[in-house]
Amino acid sequence: MRGIGKSFPGVRALRDVSLTLHSGEVLALVGENGAGKSTLMKILAGAQRADQGTIAIDGTEVAIASPHDAERLGIGMIYQEFNLVPQLGALQNIMLGNEPVRGFMLDERAARERASAVLQELGIELPRDRPASRLSVAQQQLIEIAKALSKRARIIVMDEPTAALTDREIDALFALIARLRAGGAGIIYISHRMEELPKIADRITVLRDGSVVETRTIAEFSPADVIRAMVGRPLDAHFPALDPVKPDAAVVLDVRGLSRRPAIEDITFSVRAGEIVGLAGLIGAGRTEIVRAIAGADVPDRGSVEIDGQRTHIRTPHDSIVAGIAFITEDRKGQGLVLGMTVRENITLAHLAQFVNREHLISQSREEAAARKMITDLHVRTPGPEQLVRNLSGGNQQKVVLAKWLLGKARVFLFDEPTRGIDVGAKAEIYALMKTLLENGAAIVMVSSELPEVLGMSHRILAIRDGRIVREFTRETATPDAVIAAATGAAA
Amino acid sequence: MSAILKNLWLRNTVLVIVVAIFMGIVNAAAHGEFLNPRNLVTVLEQISYNCILGVGQTFVIITAGIDLSIGSLVALTGVVMAQTANHLSLGGVGLVLVTLLAGLAVGAAAGWINALPVVKLNLPPFITTFAMLEVTLGLSYIFSGGQPVAVNNPIFSAIGTGAVFGLPVPVIWMIVVVAIASVLLTRTRFGRYVFALGGNEEAARLAGVATARVKTLVYVISGMCAAIVGFLYMARFSSGSPDTGTHDELLEAIAAVVVGGTSLMGGQGSILGTFFGALLIGLLYNAMNLIHVDSYLQKVVLGVVILLAVVLDELRKRYLART
Question: How far is CA A129 from CA A8, A158, B300, in A?
């Protein structure tokens, strides 16, 4: 790719970007949210068209006007958001758009054989006919990869493939990538996880504000250098230092015997003012289900939740908000935001009552003032409060979700994967914000699949396995090995 | 940014010019009859029924739902109100009020029943309101014996055919309904929640929105709008008939909503848009009648215009959101 440029109304997304990918190579593409990685890859995949620049494959200049063109040229794209048909099974999803036919009829048997062969070749194990909607995120990810590879892709783009995977699944993915590389494929690997790059990448290209800042081989590029190149400034401490919980701090959240079978069973724990309790565990262990039950998103079968010593009766999310709980969901786009609404409308959605005047009409000017204040306080990068949330980058969307909950007077904050798919700069801002919440006496429960995050941002850690709390760690006793052992059930 | 605004302005200007030229030609062809104020008031009166139905439908469609029962609900509420009026020993304003309230209650109840399976079992509103269409149609025949029920008290006729400051009563109703609905949708919490529900129901629920209540209310509003139209027809014809409202009313109300820029996918739309959608369709029919366009051809033209309006709106949205 040479001299690629792309502008959107009001934004210059890419400026003279050039990129080379060799066969048998893994090129890591890193940069903060909004740096232009996704746009660049969408251009390569034919989902968007560049304003300037050229793309050549094997030395021949090519025109990629549509995803179909890209596919024909051997470019396979694995997006961060999956493009599976939820009602179809793994095999059908893999063959989607390439179904073998006999005459006018689908050749079901050939389709099954071909898709099964792909899975076998890749060493992927999963239920082959269960609808994709009932598979885990990791399994859906594997289907996406198989789908791309079934089309004999030689250039494979992976956008944050490990964001939703557990460590064991990541190892399997890396082994797969190594085999693809050995087979001569070129892979562009987008990730926010610095620690995995040395394991997988040959070279690293850093994008910042729509331009290539630097490209170096992995050996010459220390993680600290990469981060410096990404943010344009050195970023020393990743996690802020948490103050210890005051000895006399009162219990804010007290959960007793919470069950919702079969997902969670007899969950009992408490969180004090100024304390973060981290929930560690594998995907599907029941961590998200625990916070959902506390927040009234699902109704528990049994158990009680007390806030500041007051028994609550939470049957709906509305009840939990009234009780002083804020629930920051893991899935921003599906559960956290109304994408077609403006930044202002999203920020005020959960607390509209604050903006209603005596005639029961919403005061838009007061709404706007509150939204502007939040935009400033949280450094949300948006042209203004009337921008549609759909047009913001992931990190900025997450800040809008946070702004929505900061408008209220919540005592308990439930964070589910608070920094998933967010760049380093935005992560640091969100950690700082959590610290501020603690200083104001809030209690925080945090679910995270990133072990360093759980270890670095929790006062106590609860390891969850099969819907139960299997072990509790203090900051001192929590070593990566011990937590992983507890979460996976391996003997430590 | 300024380039976009300029272009948009240009675009709308072009549209306005085209419509103006079209109106001028029609007016000339109809010997000045078209742009005659008397004729325009007639058009307003003609669109008021479908516009009021469309207002109720707009709420439902913004939540990504649909209400197919409104046409036959006009018939049922009309019949119920005619029977109520004939069986009451009241007179004057009291009679009118009680009759109207009876109709509104029936409309609201039908809307509530429409919403019940949608809210409780997550059934598609297409099915539940389609079932309601059949039920209300059947009931309106049962309650009327299959014949129009003549209303004895002349006060209704006076209302239905009367005018205030030169504006026919249905037009006044339309203006009031449009004004109230517009404020409700754009300025209240309920209105905001309607949009949020249509845009992302789960996000709305997790933000504490009582989604079941909001959803139920939009169908109740739609049912009550149908009852208002049932009342206006009943008053105008001095009878409640099981045949009123069951022809093109449902589809033309939906057409007004869609032409007015409300998205069938939910999350987007406006009451004023629906008003202008109804107005456009009404003017078109009127113009074609004045220049003696064959009535079969009128349907073809209407279909083409609906499609064109929606395509134009979509192109405009894409242009604005081009990314």
Answer: 41, 25, 47
Burial of B114 (0-12, 13-18, 19+ CB in 10 A): buried
Residues 6+ apart with CB under 8 A from A20: A1
Q: Do A362 and B205 touch (CB under 8 A)?
A: no
Average pLDDT over residues B172-196: 95
Which of B7, B200, B213, B270 is the best substitution to test chain A (most A C-beta atoms within 10 A)?
Answer: B200
Q: What is the mean pLDDT of residues A274-301?
A: 91
Q: What is the DSSP letter of A374?
A: H
CATH class of A251-488: alpha beta
Amino acid, single-letter form, for residue A392: L
Please tell me the distance from the alpha carbon of residue B279 to that of residue B255, in angstroms, as a whole number.
11
Confidence bin at B24 (pLDDT 50/70/90)? confident
Contacts of B37 (CB under 8 A, 6+ apart): none
Give A416's strand partners. A447
Contacts of A48 in chain B (CB under 8 A): 323
Q: What is the DSSP string of B31-93?
A: TT-TT-HHHHHHHHHHHHHHHHHHHHHHHHHHTT---TTHHHHHHHHHHHHHHHHHH----HH
Contacts (Cβ under 8 Å, ≥6 apart) of A303: A255, A256, A257, A258, A259, A266, A267, A293
CA distances from A412 to A255, A408, B80, B204, B210 (A): 12, 11, 53, 20, 21
Contact (Cβ atoms closer than 8 angstroms) between residue A258 and residue A305: yes
Distance CA B8, CA A445 (A): 48
ipTM of the complex as predicted: 0.82
More confident residue, A423 or B107: B107
User: pTM (2 decimals)?
Assistant: 0.77
Strands A412-416 and A325-328, sheet pairing? parallel
Q: Does B295 touch chain A (CB under 8 A)?
A: no
**Coil, helix or strand at residue A11:** strand
Look up residue B16 and give its two tokens.
Answer: 């306005």
What fold characterizes domain A2-231? Rossmann fold (3.40.50)
SS3 A169: helix
Distance CA A313, CA A306 (A): 9
Joined tokens for residue A366:
């007061």
Q: What is B36-320's CATH number?
A: 1.10.3470
Is the CB of residue A286 less than 8 Å from the CB of residue A466? yes
Q: Tokens representing B289?
A: 């009648």
Contact (CB, 8 A) for A340 and B321: no
Ranges in chain A annotated CATH 3.40.50.300: 2-231, 251-488
- Using an 8 Å Cβ cutoff, are A29 and A190 in contact? yes
B204 in A contact zone (CB under 8 Å): yes
Instruction: Tell me if chain B has a CB within 8 Å of the CB of A317.
Output: yes
Considering only CA atoms, give the Rg of chain A: 24
**In contact, A23 and A185? CB cutoff 8 Å:** yes
Backbone φ and ψ for A406, nearest 5 degrees, come out as -75, -20
Beta bridge partners of A76: A156
